[in-house]
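[scheduler] slot 2 assigned
[scheduler] job type: sequence-to-structure, two independent chains
[scheduler] chain ordering preserved from manifest
[runner] begin chain α
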Amino acid sequence: MKLYLIGLGPGKWEGLTLEAQRACEACDVLVGYHVYLDLIRSRFPDKPCLTTAMRQEPERCRMAIREALGGKTVGLVCSGDAGVYGMASLTLTIAQEFPPIDIVVVPGVTAALSGAALLGAPLSHDFAVVSLSDLLTPWDAIERRLTAAAEADFALCLYNPASHHRPDNLKKACDILLRVKSPETVCGLVRCIGREGESSRVLTLRELRDADADMFTTVFIGNSLTKNLAGRMVTPRGYRDEMADTSAAGGSAV
């Protein structure tokens, strides 16, 4: 009786960690939202796959736990990392309703990391990750977190920036940040990371306010030192006089 909570990373098979690949291979059955199962289904054509609809996450967890209690090795999959806006917290909580089983959390590459790689190096110093989805978190709490992060000059990664039901949340977030941050702050947008239609764009906070975004978009907002270097979003690591020291040495800092 074992249940793996598997983060699939950004989408492509090569984006899975080796540990995640081996966990999928070890499972008798895979459980997950159909969009995520479709990312790996072709790799396991003979492996049973069980799914539930959107917003039925608790039932999905219970389905996976019941399968494991039946003696199977089960993989409950999600995109990115299971512990970052993923299924790990909910599953570990719901598991308290059932007899004990062996639950293993398998890390994955979350969108903050895979998206940052597409843009350059936007998260090379202290940063915060905030979801703009107010389905589970009240908007006033999201606003407080955005304000605090902006005042502390964190670089920011924003998950769930917009959807059909909340098309203006990114614009609202930018208005909050613009109370503190310069409109010329370097920002980035990535979409469909590791999947068909993958794209990235570097722009300013002023431009970001009116940019199109959806649930497949991840947003990056730089700190006061973040630069646009030949189209790449780069946040310095924080060395004092980093660029001056590099120029004086005539080479690269190590």
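[runner] end chain α
[runner] begin chain β
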Amino acid sequence: MFQAHHGLVFRTAYRITGNAADAEDVLQTVFLRMLRRDQAARVLERQESYFRRAAINVSLDVVRSAKDAHNVPLDEVPPGALPTEKQKPESRELRECLRGALARLNPREAEIFAMRFFEDLSNQEIAKILGISQIHVAVILHRTRTRLQKELRSYLGERS
């Protein structure tokens, strides 16, 4: 199962966390949890769905815990870790703001948003994976986008 799905888990985690080291941690956590809970038998039927959902949920946990982490003094930042000219600090800050707002959503909203906009799944695919109606998916996405837009507007308003 690891061979077949480690790429999916890593890509999903990287899209949400924006950090390769965090994505590796998510990858390890997902497979270790599966082994510890002896979920391998249950996972066999819907492997891709299980691993995608697990990666999203663990990634959101990582994002939530990262906002509580302490800042590192500038003189302790390793060389090359600062943004380059290609990566504008504003865009990095905006992505961090989005990740923080996503972390404040309830788990179901965050999961559906991540599946739609990070994993590029259709509403129909999300509904099938989660066992809910497409209409329910659409309603949750609409509410979530509205909430995130408000939070990002307030962020952008502060920066002006």
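[runner] end chain β
[qc] chain β: The helical segments are 2-17, 20-36, 40-43, 47-66, 89-103, 107-117, 123-130, 134-159.
[scheduler] slot 2 released
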